[in-house]
Amino acid sequence: MRIAFIGDVHGRVLHTLGALAALQNSRGVRLDAAIQVGDLGAYPTWERMDRPSKRFAEENPAENDFFRLLDPSPRLADAVRSALALLPPVHFVSGNHEDFEWLAGLHEAAGERVVPVDPLGAFHHVECGHQITVAEQRIAFLGKIEEPGHMDLDEDARASLLAAEPGSVDVLVTHDGPFGMCRNWRGELEGSPKLAELIEHLQPRVHVSGHYHHENGPRHYGRTDSYALAELVYPKTNRRRPERANPEQRVAEGSIGLLDTETGTFEYVHDAWLADVCGDDLDLSRFLMP
User: Does the CA dihedral 207-210-215-216 come out positive or negative?
Assistant: First the structure.
């Protein structure tokens, strides 16, 4: 079986569905599950977006596609339904750019730990600390980031995962990554010490994360192979990293990972067709034909 993992989306949900459809078509495979590692950009309205998200959305129009999904036109609704006839729904964990209060309200209203966030059911949020079984894999989720003075991981959720038996989880999905995984532009070590401890305890076969917006891995923590994904679509301009400027809004290499559950192999997707999934106003329907 095959599970696709998607890096930080930041609202570009149509690029997400288009890339998954293009992956299936180009490889001649069928995905059994799709998982997004946080920063989907799940906000119910523009007004509830945080300030950085608003600033980026003003410069990158496709970051507003999540709002289109919440209230789709008939044409878009037809395209999304056609996509879901071909693709599994995308399960995602919280990043650091979501409306946590709104997401919590969806869970409370439904009384469920996994809930659809859009009326068509394309994207399903998984509560922190929860485990699901998809594609015959036991997958645990822990979102948010460990950044003192700004945000912390959900301690109750982390404690519940620390209470699980080592090896009881096949795949751990987080937004943040373990401490020491990389350095920032100032040369400082990045990552979460609390996640490093969790990985060392749980020892899943595979750990997948996002947040740092570049491909990073595999790194090895005991029996665990850890991978971080690139941002799905880099912004149009980048003052610090001009080489990442992306005026055509193309899907980035290394922003999608593919896990073969039978062999246990994880692959970063670098296929040339990624560049075809692009634009400020992506036409999803053109990726749904074989």
Answer: negative
**Cβ(10)–Cβ(55) under 8 Å?**
no
User: For strand 33-36 and strand 2-6, is the pairing parallel, antiparallel, or unpaired?
Assistant: parallel
User: Residue 188: pLDDT band by 50, 70, 90 thresholds?
Assistant: confident
**DSSP of the chain, one letter per residue?**
-EEEEE---TT-HHHHHHHHHHHHHHHT---SEEEE-S-----SSGGGS-HHHHHHHHH-GGGGHHHHHHS--HHHHHHHHHHHHHSPPEEE---SSS-HHHHHHHHHHHT-SEEE-STT--EEEE-TT-EEEETTEEEEEE-S--BTTTB---HHHHHHHHTSPTT--SEEEESS-BTTSEE-TTS-EESBHHHHHHHHHH--SEEEE-SS-S-EEEEEETTEEEEEPPPSB--S--SS-GGG--TT-PBPTTSEEEEETTTTEEEE---GGGGGS--SS--GGGGS--
Average pLDDT over residues 181-190: 75
Tokens for 259, please give them: 């896990």
State pLDDT tens for residues 45-94.
Answer: 999 999 999 999 999 999 999 999 999 999 999 999 999 999 999 999 99
Within 10 angstroms of residue 213's Cβ, the number of other Cβ atoms is: 22
Question: What local confidence, expressed as pLDDT, does residue 290 receive?
Answer: 67
- Residues 130 and 92 sit within 8 Å (Cβ to Cβ): no
Percent over 90 (pLDDT), the chain:
92
pTM over 0.85: yes
Contacts of 54 (CB under 8 A, 6+ apart): 46
The tokens for 195 are 């996640």
Q: Hey, how many other C-beta atoms are within 10 angstroms of the C-beta on 78?
A: 13
- In the predicted structure, residue 241 carries a pLDDT above the cut 90: no
